[in-house]
Amino acid sequence: MSEPTSPTPTPPPERLSLRWALILLASVVAGLLAGLLTYAQSGNWPGSLLAALGASAAALVGLPLLL
Question: What is this structure's pTM?
Fold first, then answer.
């Protein structure tokens, strides 16, 4: 009779690397700055939202190439 074997342990989930954490943080900061500055200049919140989203997207595309 064969002995029961314990199930193979699952590996721990991968964590976010420090590089990507910095890239995501910088993109959030860039979006906040662009949105706040656009709102302070124009007072138009839909335009400032678009500027914030655009700046965040540009940072997410550009920063991995630089870091």
Answer: 0.76
